[in-house]
Amino acid sequence: MARVYNFSAGPAVLPEEVLLEAAAEMMDYRGTGMSVMEMSHRSKAYQQIIDEAEADLRQLMNIPDNYKVLFLQGGASQQFAMIPMNLMKNKVADYIITGQWAKKAWQEAQKYGAANAIASSADETFSYIPDCSDLPVSPDADYVYICENNTIYGTKFHTLPNTKGKMLVSDVSSCFLSEPVDVTKYGLIYGGVQKNIGPAGVVIAIIREDLITEDVLPGTPTMLTYKIHADNGSMYNTPPAYGIYICGKVFKWLLKNGGLDAMQEKNQKKAAILYDFLDQSKLFRGTVRKEDRSLMNVPFVTGSKELDEAFVKAAAEAGFVNLKGHRSVGGMRASIYNAMPIEGVEKLVDFMREFEAANS
Ligand SMILES: *Cc1c(COP(=O)(O)O)cnc(C)c1O
Q1: CATH number of 258-358
Q2: Quick one: which atom of ligand 1 is closest to the CA of 75?
C-alpha cells in the first residue's frame, strides 16, 4: 500500500483509520451481510448510522436544540440557490465577496432578489478579508452572507462580521470542524463535506428552527425546501447514504481524538510550521495578508511560473501531491485539513527547504 501526502483542496485526505474501517465493513456491515451502500435507508441499521452521525456532530459542535442538522445533497453549490429561495423573505440579502465561492453564491442569489455586495476584497485578488466592523448592512436584509474560509485564496474570517443584528449565513465548507465554533452566532452554517469530512455530494446544513418555514419563494422545488428535509429527518428521499456513513465515522474519529479544541491546536501547529517556513524563505512566499491567513489552505508562490511548475512536479515525484494552486490563481496551494498528519507538513517543509537550496 503506497499512500501519498495528499494536499488536495477537495475532495481531500481522510483519516486512514476511517478508510480502513470502511474497508473492513465493506462486505458485511456488522452482521447484515451487506455493505452500507447496498442497504435500505429505511432499515434499522441505517437509521442508527444517520442518528449517530447527527448526535456525534451535535456533540462535536455543541449544537443547541433549537438548530436542526440536515444532511442534504448537491454539494455546497446547491445551497447558493437554496439559501435565497428559503430565506429571502424580503427579497434582500447582503453578501461579502471574499473569493470565487462567495461571488458564485452572490450571483446565484441575484436570480431571486436584490443581492447586494456590501464588501469585497476583489481589488487585491482576494488576498485579504475586508474590514467588516461597520458595513452598510441593508435595513431590510434577510441575512448577511459570508464564505468563512476561502479555499482558493487561503483567507479566513478570524472575526465574524458585524451584521448589525441581521442573521448570519456562512459557508464553512473548507473549515468545517477545524476548530470550535459558536453555532448561536449564525442562522445557518453549511458546508460541502468533501474538504474536511467525507465524500463529495453530501452537504450539511445547520439551521435555526425558526428559519425553517413553508414561506419560501414561489416555485421553490420540494427538494430545495429546508422544511421538507427537516420534517423528514433528512430522508424525504434516498439520502447520500454511504457518504453520510463515512461522515459519521469521521465524527467519531474527531471525538476520539479530543474534539474540536484538540483539532484546532493541531491545525494551528501544522499551519505554523508552513507559515513560519514561508516567512523566512528566500524562494517561497505566502500570498495572503498575515492576519487573515487560513489554517486549512495555504497558497504560496516562488515568483517564477517556471519554478512553480518545477516545484509542483518535483514534489509530486517525492510523494507530495496536489500542490498546484487553483487554476484561477496559479502558484501552489497546500491544503492541510484535519486528516493531514503533522509529519506530512513537516516533510513538505523539509522538501521545500531542499528545493530552495537546489534552486538558489
Ligand atoms: C468547494 C467549495 C464549494 C463548492 O462545493 P461543491 O460541493 O463542489 O458545490 C463551495 N464553497 C467553498 C468554500 C468550497 O470550498
Answers
A1: 3.90.1150.10
A2: 7
